[in-house]
Amino acid sequence: MKRRYKSWGRYPRAEQEAVRLWWRNEPFPSHALDGKTALPRGNGRSYGDSCLNDGGVLVDARGLDRFVAFDPATGILRCEAGVLLADILALAVPKGWFIPATPGTQLVTVGGAIANDVHGKAHHRDGTFGRHVRRFELLRSDGARLICSPTEHADWYRATIGGLGLTGLILWAELALKPIANPYIAAESIRCESLDAFFEVSAESDEGYEYTVAWIDCTARGPSLGRGLFARGNHAPDGISNTPRPPGRGFTFPVELPVSLVNGLTLRAFNRLYYNRQREARTQRIVHYAPFFYPLDALREWNRIYGPRGFFQYQCVLPGSDGRTAVHEILERIAASGEGSFLAVMKVFGDLESPGILSFPRAGVTLAVDFPNRGQPTLALMESLDAVVRAAGGRVYPAKDARMSAESFNDYYPQWRELLPFIDPQLSSSFWRRTAGALT
Ligand SMILES: Cc1cc2nc3c(=O)[nH]c(=O)nc-3n(C[C@H](O)[C@H](O)[C@H](O)COP(=O)(O)OP(=O)(O)OC[C@H]3O[C@@H](n4cnc5c(N)ncnc54)[C@H](O)[C@@H]3O)c2cc1C
Predict the structure, then answer these.
(1) Are residues 72 and 151 in the same domain?
(2) Which ligand 1 atom is at minimum distance from the Cα of 164?
(3) Measured in angstroms, how far is the CA atom of residue 45 from the centroid of ligand 1?
(4) Distance in angstroms (rounded) separating the CA atoms of residues 52 and 39
């Protein structure tokens, strides 16, 4: 199948064939490779090149979209790897269950969520997605099928969670969901006037709130640096009245624009307006889970606003008490550069261990910022942010990356060689060749 598969950031471009997998008892599609390498593909919601295989073949797992078993008494769900988190929620929420660790979009597959060991607003409580995966089946190119869990093929379990799709094809997985009383969230939004205010509210929220994250005005400087709106919430208790209606289907951004709508002027204006849309120090409301967790899903294909050159997302985590100083420095550099983002989010991760060898999350503060691709100046800015992250002992998230150097990758993930014995000889990705490939 010849089709242009892109990543969410629409950068870099890649030329690759694709073959679709329909059945979980199919053999590994070696016959379609013609001597090339393959890479499993979920729903392409990774921003950079970890879901691309330039010059190779993608094995599109979206055809594996069936539920296998669900026990509404225990919340244990078994489904194929191409099932979207949105489909799981549609099935499970009416029966009183929710996904414990969900990213900022529900349009990702179970296979993709495992391969990047994704995280969300509940990281300080529930850790990463991988912690809730009880077992899965892995298909290797030599035809071996491994059932992996914390106790069976435990080394393969650790390698595959956060393993960037390189250890084999995940065919199905069994997940442990968490109980809820209804589809609503009791949400609060708190205005934070500075970075210090963010850290104060975050520390005070960890105990009493399952979900926390802040939107940050990344154009603000001086005493306002790090100002933003801090969102926190809990699943609403049983018996609430005046429940909001579920959201509609949303809109699709209609066209691919010839140029990016995002520039210095629109950025500053948007950030100022968005910060000032809330005048009160604190607001409280009951909301449906979809706008609370997935506000961006309401505008499908919003990545088109960045035009044909696409955009980058930069997400780092900065550990320990130095993380505070480092995130201050990073925000300074972003604001001074004039590059910036509508969407900058910040959260303090908890200290629950991530199960994968290459999992990104660790205790510390994480910042995620989108940058329109303006070529060299944007790349130079991110390289300069890497210098701060490296000095602080932090790391950058491969699922969002399209440009980190091999040296940075080696600093961020010194344990990456532990993955080598588990990598399937027929699998590779553009990301892996660009980073680890340049180190071997
Ligand atoms: C709006 C938005 C918000 C986001 N918010 C967050 C967030 O809050 N937290 C977070 O962690 N991430 C976030 N992400 C990133 C996203 O959650 C991850 O990139 C996720 O892994 C994408 O899953 P996917 O199904 O689209 O997989 P793809 O992007 O297609 O692939 C991701 C990886 O999974 C591998 N893979 C896919 N299917 C299989 C399979 N069956 N077997 C083996 N390997 C497989 C691929 O080889 C690739 O390495 C966000 C992305 C967007 C667009």
Answers:
(1) yes
(2) 49
(3) 5
(4) 7
- Regarding whether 176 and 139 lie in a shared domain, the answer is yes
Select from 28, 108, 300, 369 the residue to mutate for testing ligand 1; criterion: most ligand atoms less than 8 Å from CB: 108
The answer to whether the CB of 237 falls within 8 A of the CB of 265 is no
List the residue whose alpha carbon is closest to atom 39 of ligand 1. 111
Spacing, Cα 431 to ligand 1 middle (Å)? 14
Q: What is the pLDDT of residues 350-396, one digit of tens each?
A: 999 999 999 999 999 999 999 999 999 999 999 999 999 999 999 99
What would the pLDDT profile of 110-154 be if each residue is shown by its tens digit? Answer: 999 999 999 999 999 999 999 999 999 999 999 999 999 999 999
Whether residue 392 lies inside any domain: the answer is yes
Last residue of a domain, one of 149, 180, 211: 180
**Is the CB–ligand 1 distance for residue 108 below 6 Å?**
yes
CA of 111 to the centre of ligand 1 (A): 8
Count of positions (residues) in the chain:
440
The enclosing domain of 93 has a CATH number of 3.30.465.10
364 plus 290 within the same structural domain:
yes
Strands of 72-166, DSSP E: 76-80, 97-98, 133-139, 145-148
Tell whether 157 is covered by a domain.
yes
> Could you give the CA distance from residue 21 to residue 43 in angstroms, rounded to a whole number?
13
111 in the same domain as 189:
no
Task: Tell me, yes or no, whether 128 and 267 share the same domain.
Answer: no
Query: What pLDDT does residue 246 have?
Result: 76
pTM of the entire predicted model: 0.97
Cβ within 8 Å of residue 405, ≥6 positions away = 383, 386, 435
Same domain, residue pair 75 and 222: no
- Number of domains the chain is built from: 2
* Closest ligand 1 atom to Cα of 168: 43
Q: How far apart are CA 331 and CA 316, in angstroms?
A: 12
Rounded distance from Cα 176 to ligand 1 centre (Å): 19
Q: Please check whether residue 48 lies inside any domain of the structure.
A: no
Which residue, chain included where needed, has tokens 């988190």? Answer: 85
- Nearest C-alpha to atom 44 of ligand 1 is from which residue? 165
For residue range 79-98, list pLDDT tens digits in order.
999 999 999 999 999 999 99
Cβ of 43 less than 6 Å from ligand 1: yes
Distance 88 CA to ligand 1 centre (A): 16
Q: Is the CB of 42 under 6 A from ligand 1?
A: yes
Q: Is the dihedral of CA 414, 415, 416, 421 positive or negative?
A: positive
The mean predicted confidence, pLDDT, of the chain is: 95
Residues 340 and 241 in one domain: yes
Ligand 1 centroid–CA 108 distance in Å is 6
Residue from 396, 398, 421, 371 nearest 112 by CA: 398
